[in-house]
Write a structure and sequence with these properties.
72 residues, mainly alpha, 3 helices, 57% helix, elongated
Length: 72
């Protein structure tokens, strides 16, 4: 018996057909590249600004309160 090999393109096409048959559709989402130096620099700058604000303690208290349920 000869083993049938499929190209990557065919495998992806068949996979997508199966998903569509389940009532799903593809959605492409672009997100920031958290590894980019520009992202890291901007995140660091924003974190410092938040930490230096007058409301830093209250803001952190709020974040801690809403984050308690996510660890479960």
């Amino acid at each position: 018996m000869q083993q049938q090999t499929r190209s990557s393109r065919d495998k992806v096409r068949l996979h997508r057909e199966r998903l569509r048959a389940q009532g799903l559709r593809p959605v492409q989402i672009w997100v920031p590249d958290v590894r980019a130096r520009s992202f890291i620099s901007a995140a660091r700058q924003q974190s410092k600004a938040v930490a230096a604000s007058k409301r830093a303690r209250a803001d952190q208290g709020f974040i801690d309160a809403v984050s308690e349920n996510f660890g479960e």
